[in-house]
Amino acid sequence: APGSKRILSTFTRWGPHGAVQPFSDEDASIETLSHCSSFSDAMSVADEGGEAGEETAQEDLQYKLNVFIDSTVDKSAKTRQGALDGLKAAMATRILYEFISDRRMTITDSIERCLKKGKGQEQCAAASLACLLCIQLGSGVESEEVFKTLKPIFKNILLDGAANIQTRQACATSLGLCTLVVEDDILDVYATMESFESLFMRSYVKEDGSRPSLNPQTTLLHTNALLSWALLLTICTGSQVKAVTHLPKLPRLLENDDVNMRIAAGETIALLFELARDMDPAFEYDDWEPLCDKLNSLATDCNKHRAKTDKRKQRSVFRDVLKAVEERDFQTETIRFSTERMTIDSWVRKRTYDAFREFVGSGMNYHLQANEFIRDVFELGPPVLVDAATLKSMKISRFERHLYNAAAFKARTKARNKFRDKRVDVGEF
Fold first, then answer.
1. Owning domain of residue 151
2. What CA–CA distance (Å, rounded) separates 201 from 218?
3. Burial of 245 from C-beta contacts in 10 A (0-12 / 13-18 / 19+)
4. Residue 190 and residue 94: Cα distance in Å, rounded?
5. According to the model, what pLDDT value does residue 428 have?
6. Averaged over 176-190, what is the pLDDT?
7. Would you say residue 45 has pLDDT above 70?
């Protein structure tokens, strides 16, 4: 059978009862990475062989996942890294609740060990895996057990100035989403938000007008902390939102040299305005005009010393932020998945969607379709069951898709050439 040599090799090395046999770090790395690279094999078998193929694919997938879990305690850092990445890829693209539920504490112990004893990229992968584990388990007792173990570790690393900066950045993002998924005590949510505040406030322009001198990595840490703080703000009570004192201070971050920090600050300002107006339609901000002027300058930024891609990204975001502050308007976005669609129609919804998509990536549409917890977050109701015949009828052939794309490209080129034609009188525009 295809791949039987690889499977036999792995079985021999791990032993019939999972006991680790002596072999070199290089062999371990090659073996684990081999499983990582062949992870997609199990996903394509089901489409080819019907129910029998689906059962075979499921067995193959579970086998590989068990190998990944065992490899997270290997002596080789490269092997552990490959195992963490393999588990992340699986959880991002599949619903594995039954498989994970029985092994959640084993996986949690591995994450804890990698966070405490690993370095750099391994710690970052472990932090991301913790989030994906909570997303798979949903909001309940099982994920609470996981978070109870990992939360103190996240906070210790986050607030430890001597810890690896990339690990602190990953923990800032992971702690925010895990808190959103698991935490049911609002006081604990507030305490976590205070931890984030203690970080991003260090990027504020000082009262005397001077800017703090921070390196790009520290600025990224503060950006991640600000985004996680804003994410948790979406689940706060009305009284807590009303008590937020950061709105007068956040505009100071709009002057930051880092484009990602400026964008994070702008989106957070728009979110605060939306929440404040939901509570009080007559809400007014004292420095409204200076803020609008600053947002407008960022939406039309033409500074030559900034990269073109940064300016393009910044202008696009701040046009939407300016509309939100000035006109109470939001640029809606429609997300289509399977036979359904979801509308992103508020800054609260956008911040939540972006947070989940950061971890799930290209598997977001699949989770929107099948993950009951994420569907509950976005109020999509129970998963919609669609039979195979309906799905097949919805798909267009590759040739039809090619013809459609070719026609669209031709029409787009004609339209652009019309405006690029030098013979057109400039005065007509």
1. 61-184
2. 12
3. exposed
4. 32
5. 44
6. 94
7. no
